[in-house]
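FW: tagging you since you asked about this chain on Friday. Here's the raw sequence from the shared folder, copied in full. Didn't touch anything.
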Amino acid sequence: MKASAARVCAQAKLNLRLRVLARETSGYHQIETLFIRVDLADTVTVRVHPGGGRRLDTGSADLGLPDRNLAMRAAVAYQEACGWPAGFHVTLDKAVPAGAGLGGGSADAGAVLRALNALAPTPVTEVELLAIGVSLGADVPFLTSEVPFALGWGRGERLLGLTAPPARDVVIVVPPFAVSTAEAYELISPRVAAGAPSAQLVAAGALSDWGMLVALAGNDFEREVAARNPEVGRIRDALLTSGAKLAQLTGSGSAVFGVFDRAPAIDALAFRVEGMVIPTRTAERVAPVELIE
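HL: got it, structure written out here
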């Protein structure tokens, strides 16, 4: 008998490299990015039942209207694409801060898609599953995939899975303000319009080496976002002086992360920055779907 419930650790992501390229006639920008998962994760539980109905529980987290929540939208998208399940109940136990560039909502969506596909009497292929994710947002395909580290391009939906570099300690600092993605794109649009950055040719295998990743790292949003929000630069500098080999904005912010060879003293770092300080590690694997009922 097929299971009726599944649980997934919906791992957050970092952008080790993020370049914003040409703007399409549709208004969307092309990007080039290196995604990597981290151990920081929400817990997503999905139950299916034959009686119909759609339900989303977020506990004490205020995530807005259910119909706009990416986890709910993912469940509905799977249901409409596959004609199954008749009903579902999604529960989110949040640990990833929302709206910080860590892909928390997208990770929840990816976890829901993976859970439903594991429970489905006739699962779809991975390509078909990722195609459902594309309609939900640029980070969703990667966070639906079974790879912990990937090069993404286009709008982020085109992926090349890569061998993950060795796990490293990470500290994420989430300042007490949000950065609107739409506003961040508007801030950098004049610079992007002035000319795309030159291309770099790098062997895919070299991207699993932290020395190469540090050399390639960068985030095209950081200059303008930090100019408007000086705390971003102060956090980056505090991470670097605490021993980070790499420190930068992730996504369009507002979170800033540092990658360390050895974990720093968290209390001392927290004293120097304003915001939530979260220790974690980069991931070498994707958390599996666990069938629970």
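FW: The longest strand covers residues 29-49.
HL: agreed, and The mean pLDDT is 92.
FW: great, closing this out.
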